Automatic annotation (TrEMBL):
Gene: acyP
Domain of life: Bacteria
Enzyme class: hydrolase
Organism: Limosilactobacillus caviae
Assigned protein family: Belongs to the acylphosphatase family.
Active-site annotation: R18, N36
Keyword terms: Hydrolase
SUPFAM superfamilies assigned to the protein according to its UniProt record, in alphabetical order: Acylphosphatase/BLUF domain-like
Domain Acylphosphatase-like positions: 3-91
Name used for this protein in its record: acylphosphatase
C-alpha cells in the first residue's frame, strides 16, 4: 500500500481534468482526493496497491482528457490515511 501526493501544472483547470482523474481512480479502486488549487494546478492524493497507483499516475501524466496540457507533475510520498474507502473531488 502506497500514498502519493501529486501537483499537476499546465492547462488542467476548466478542461474536465478532475472529473477524468476521478473516473480513472474509481475504476482502479484507488482511494484519495483530487482538487483544484488557487495557483491553477490540480492536487491529487492516491492511495492503494503500489502497481495500481503507479499505473494511475502514468495515466495522469499522459493527460486523462484530450483538452488538458500537462507541463509538470511533482510527486511526493505521503503517509497512509483514512479516506473512508473512497475517492472524492474536493474543493
Amino acid at each position: 500500500m502506497v500514498n502519493y501526493h501529486l501537483k499537476i501544472s499546465g492547462r488542467v483547470q476548466g478542461v474536465g481534468f478532475r472529473w477524468s482523474v476521478y473516473q480513472l481512480a474509481r475504476q482502479a479502486g484507488v482511494e484519495g482526493i483530487v482538487m483544484n488549487k488557487n495557483d491553477g494546478s490540480v492536487y491529487c492524493e492516491f492511495q492503494g496497491p503500489t502497481a495500481i497507483v503507479n499505473e494511475l499516475i502514468a495515466k495522469v501524466k499522459a493527460g486523462p482528457t484530450p483538452y488538458a496540457k500537462i507541463n509538470e507533475v511533482k510527486i511526493k510520498q505521503g503517509g497512509i490515511k483514512n479516506y473512508h474507502h473512497s475517492f472524492q473531488i474536493t474543493h
